[in-house]
Amino acid sequence: MGEVWLAHDLLLFRPVAVKTLRPELAASAEHWARFRREAVSAALLGHPSIVAVYDAGEDMGDDGSVPYLVMEYVTGTTLLQLVRDDRITGSEHALELTAGVLEALEHAHDHGIVHRDIKPANTMLSHEGTVKVMDFGIARSVNLTGTTLTRTSAVMGTAEYLSPEQARGEQVDHRTDLYSAGCLLYELLTGRPPFTGDTPLAVVMKHLSDPPVPPSTHAPGLPAVYDTLVLRALSKDPADRYQTAEEMHDAIRETLTGPVTAVTSPLAPPPALQHARLLPLRGASLRGASRKPRSMRRRRIRLLLQATTALLVTGLATYMITGWHAASRTPAAMPSLIGKTMAEARSNAQAAGFRIQRVRQRACPQPGTPAGRVCNQEPAPGRQVPRHTIIRVTLSPGAPR
């Protein structure tokens, strides 16, 4: 629908991306409205995983006015290109990328915005490693009381990532984005979307009627928990899906940090000494018949000490590796971070063997918590969880003004 240009902000001395509506579409009232909707939707949002919109306007040219958006310039690659280049490094990488998309969706949904076109081509991975969701051109507002939105004149979205309710032209809400996120995760895991066909209509019909094939069918060796996660997101009935982006995000985090269920081979024991080929010591003669008995005993003792030392080193290394891994999976009580500053919370979490990766700021369940202090945490204090679990905290914005 649009063209994107690299430009330089002369006022703030920074590169920006300028998106313009193609001239042949500028005369269309529908495309104008869609372009304006993208500007308004993105302007309502401010999140590290959403491409920011700095400005919007109209360029008056000889052929009439053309709308434009001035946006954050992101250096990186779309997830679609990562899939095509086979640069998804594994199932955990796919989950991490999808988690970034869900963080953006959670923020958008909290502000009443449903994207409606989540797909790998609309998501980038920046050179700094941040997932960036873009193109809110067909996004629509929905109030926070649960009122849904609909479009009856046309089906909006991309066939491979279209939810069944979108395909039927029915009412949609934030769970539509979660279905599309499930399609995205499916493609990151397998290299292909869940449904394909010769025409967009054929693909849409499969979204409506065909059950999705488990991703492990196309990615042998994928743990069963991945199938469970993806297939729930791809439920035909929105009521059977994850109900919020946060819930799906939590399921991904539990998959990443939960107990390992894959069968692993035990460490091989050190090779027996009788199979080792021992080299002669420096200065030793290969003509054993001329050795004195005392020299033979000394050599045997030396070889025995060398072999014992090798076994001790091997055993110590094995113990350190397996012992550390076992310790990292040993459950520990989750510390309470409620009421602490971010610095205090991070220090306490690290001291207990945990880490804080995600920080949110929103209304707190207990009013009155001073601004900038933790008012909620997940997992809850006192819960037994594996060490190195990621703690998600909520910072209080303070008393409402």
TrEMBL record:
GO MF terms on file? Answer: ATP binding; protein serine/threonine kinase activity
Alphabetically sorted, this entry's keywords are: ATP-binding, Kinase, Nucleotide-binding, Serine/threonine-protein kinase, Transferase
SMART domains documented for this protein:
PASTA, S_TKc
- Kindly give the InterPro entries that the UniProt entry links to this protein: Kinase-like_dom_sf, PASTA_dom, Prot_kinase_dom, Ser/Thr_kinase_AS
Question: Which PROSITE patterns does the record associate with it?
Answer: PASTA, PROTEIN_KINASE_DOM, PROTEIN_KINASE_ST
Q: Where is this region: Disordered?
A: 364-384
Domain called Protein kinase: residue spans? 1-252
List the EC numbers from the record: 2.7.11.1
Q: Out of the domains of life, which is the source?
A: Bacteria
Residues covered by the PASTA domain: 330-397
* Reaction equation(s) it catalyzes: L-threonyl-[protein] + ATP = O-phospho-L-threonyl-[protein] + ADP + H(+); L-seryl-[protein] + ATP = O-phospho-L-seryl-[protein] + ADP + H(+)
PANTHER family in UniProt? MITOGEN-ACTIVATED PROTEIN KINASE KINASE KINASE 20-RELATED, SERINE_THREONINE-PROTEIN KINASE YBDM-RELATED
What is the protein name stated in its UniProt record?
Answer: non-specific serine/threonine protein kinase
> What does the organism's lineage look like at the top?
Bacteria, Bacillati, Actinomycetota, Actinomycetes, Kitasatosporales
